[in-house]
Amino acid sequence: MSKILLVFGATGQQGGSVIDCVVNDPELSKQYTVRGVTRDPTKPSAQALRSKGVEVVMGDVDDKESLRLAMQGAHTVFAVTITIYDNQTKLREVAQGKALADAAVAAGAQYIVFSTLPHVGKISGGKYPKVDQFDAKANVEKYIRNLPIKSAFFAPGSFMQNFSAMMAPHAMDNGTYAISNVVAPQTTLPLIEIATDSGKYVGTILAEPEKYEGKVLAAATKLYSLEDIVQTISKVTSKTVTYNQLPESVFRGFLPPAAADHLVEMMLYIQDFGYYGPQTKDRVEWTAENARGRLTTLEEYFTKNPIYLQ
To answer: At 180, is the pLDDT very low, low, confident or very high (cuts 50, 70, 90)?
Structure first.
C-alpha cells in the first residue's frame, strides 16, 4: 500500500517540483500517493495538480485546524515556510515551521522533510546577525531534530530564477548591461533551478529515507562566481554583460527598505564564509552526486528561460 506524501506549497516552485518528481518517477509514484496543500484549492494551478492525479486540500499555517485536517493519514511531510521581509520576519517564519512540524507529529506522521538553510549568525560568529530568512529556517530545523519524528533536510542554494528577476542585468549608458551587487566578483553562489530541480533532491530522500535521515542536502547544481554568471548570460544573449561591484551605501539604495539589512548581510556572509559555511564546495558536490536525476546548468536555464536585453 502506498504512503501518503503531504506536500506544502504544492502550487509553489519547491512543492510543485517535489510533486512533479514523485508523480513522474516510476518507483516513487508506486511508493507514494501525493496530497498537495495550498491556501486556495480552487485556483487554476491547484486544478492542474488534480489533473496529474494529485489530491489537493486547503491548508494554512496560521490555521491549526486546517493543518490537522490536511495531515490526516500522512506518512511523510514536505514542509516549506514563507519569507516576508518586515520586522517580524524571523518570529513569523519560526512560528510557521514549528506549527507545521507540531501538526505532523500530532497526526502521527513518520517522516518530515523540511526546507531549511544554514544559521548565518552562528557560522559568522555573530558578524551577520540580521539574515533572518536563513536563521529562522535553521532554528526550525533544530526544533524538528528534537521532535519524535524522523527527519531530513533540503537546503536550496540561490535560485537561478533570481537572475531573471531582482538580480537581472540592467542597461548601462554605453549600450552594455551589468549585474550589480555589493560583493566581490569572485564571490560564488550555489545555484539551483528551484522550479524543476527541487524534486530531484527531495526525491533522493524519499527513495531512501533511512539512508538520509538527519542529513542536510546542500542543493545546487554547482558553484558559480558572479563572473561566471555574467559570462554565461553574455554567451546566451549575445550581449555584453559585466559585473559591477557597488559600495554598500549605493547597493542599499536599490533594495526595498524592509529587506535591505537582510539582503546586504546575506550577500556579505556568502562572500566571507560561503553559502553553506566553510565546507560549501564539498557539501554541494556531495549533494549533486546524490541527486535523483540530471541537474540543470545555468546555461540550460537561460536557454529555456531567455532574458531579453533590449
So the answer is: very high
What crossing angle do the helices spanning 13-23 and 194-207 adopt, rounded to 10°?
A: 50
Q: 0.70 exceeded by the pTM?
A: yes
Report the pLDDT averaged over residues 264-278.
98
Percentage, residues of the chain above pLDDT 70: 100
Q: At what angle do helices 132-145 and 89-106 cross, to 10 degrees?
A: 20
| C-alpha cell read off for 298 | 545555468
d(CA 259, CA 53): 39
What number of CA atoms fall less than 13 Å from residue 138's CA on the CB side? 13
H or E stretch including 252?
helix 248-252
Contact 301, 160 (CB under 8 A): yes
Which residues 6+ apart lie within 8 Å of 38 measured at CB? 9, 10, 11, 45, 46, 56, 57, 58, 59
Residue 1 has pLDDT above 90, yes or no: no
Instruction: Report DSSP state, residue 279.
Output: T
Region of 208 on the Ramachandran plot (φ > 0 left; ψ -120 to 50 alpha; else beta): beta
Question: Distance between CA 186 and CA 245 in Å, rounded?
Answer: 11
- According to DSSP, the residues that pair with 202 across neighbouring strands are none
**Alpha-carbon span 259 to 156, nearest angstrom:** 20
Record the cell numbers describing residue 265, joined without a space: 548581510
Cα gap 137→129, rounded to integer Å: 14
Task: Please give the Cα distance from 15 to 38 (Å, whole number).
Answer: 10
Terminal-residue alpha carbon distance, the chain: 55
With b meaning 16 or more CB within 10 Å and e meaning fewer, what string describes 100-111?
A: bbbbbeebebeb
